[in-house]
Amino acid sequence: MVTLIPGDGVGPELAQALLHLFHELEIPVDFDLEEAGKAHFEKTGTYLPDSLFESLEKNKVALKGPMTTPIGEGFRSLNVELRKKYDLYTNIRPIVERGRFREEGRALDLVIFRENTEDLYQGIEEWVSDKEARSIKVITYDGSYRLVDKAFAYAQKMGKDKVTIVTKANIMKYTDGLFLRAGRDVAKKYPDIALEEVLVDNMAMQLVLNPYQFGVIATENLYGDILSDLAAGLIGGLGLVPGANIGDDMAIFESVHGTAPDIAGKGLVNPTAFFLSASMLLDYLDLKTYGDQIRSGLGLLLGNPQTSTQDLGGPLSTMDFTEKLIEKIKEGYHG
Ligand code: NAI
Questions:
Q1: Which residue lies with its CA nearest to atom 16 of ligand 1?
Q2: Per-residue pLDDT tens for 22-32?
Q3: Closest Cα partner for 279 from 116, 60, 63?
Q4: What secondary structure letter does DSSP report for 107?
Q5: Is 151 near ligand 1, meaning CB less than 6 Å away?
Q6: Rounded to an integer, what distance in angstroms lies between the CA atom of residue 242 and that of residue 95?
Q7: Distance from Cα 335 to the centre of ligand 1, integer Å
Q8: In testing the pocket of ligand 1, which one of 40, 257, 321 has its CB within 8 Å of the most ligand atoms?
């Protein structure tokens, strides 16, 4: 059983499309549907109900839609709360060019490993006066080490020859310096994989100029958040980038994008990122064959603007795109 959290904004449309896809492809996964988020709060007075925590603790694996976080006021992010509560310290964001977003002869295949529980996301902020505010950045050696270790282990498994660690250690000598020190220590365990160190400002430029030079990036929470949106822009936008939040005994899969309030309820959301997140979940559940089917079906649709959603210049609604995907995958079954 997998916990399914539709969430806010475009989340319910994505969940509906996903359930249809899984049903039509006869994927052997049962979902336990759990409401949570701002819309749930407006109905019940609770953002994250107890039943959600019970379901997560029982199933240990979830697929989650986006949830609203107010900007500059109100409660801390519900997403950050779940990641911290269950110590989901590895955020994995694959940036893979598919379909017509592949350049001639080469395709970007980059994975960002983002530390998910520390840094400025700890929410330790204070007012010094009404004209001065402070936020405390927390980096620990152990927290950094375990994240970078996941990146190196992945690089080893995938046969990649280097891991790029991104910090701003020239300026934040203690915090980012510590992340880098932990990273260098991890690298000693993997003599066959090169360690590359890049400062975050340079990384932003390098990603725009020549992203193909990178395969695995390991970085802190805030830099990872920003760089993964930047990298999403390189391959066609937020509608295409999935993600996973993984701890030692729980995993929550979700797209990189948010609630997309500007298009919510209009049937316009591109479900690719959510379907790719579901494919990562299928890999995690040892159902990789189904994950591969979805990935290759999506690659075929994204090869043609006529079979894309509107964010990519195509004519299709969320549901029409889902139907086309089902059709493509079923065609594949019959050769
Ligand atoms: P956003 O990702 O929701 O939207 C940014 C832009 O990209 C919008 O124009 C949107 O329409 C477009 N977009 C995003 N995903 C798309 C998709 N699948 N198909 C087509 N177009 C897509 O970011 P924004 O506007 O900064 O945040 C909105 C809300 O989402 C905020 O409350 C924020 O806190 C929350 N959020 C939640 C996340 C989560 O639950 N994991 C992650 C990021 C933001």
A1: 239
A2: 999 999 999 99
A3: 63
A4: -
A5: no
A6: 8
A7: 37
A8: 257
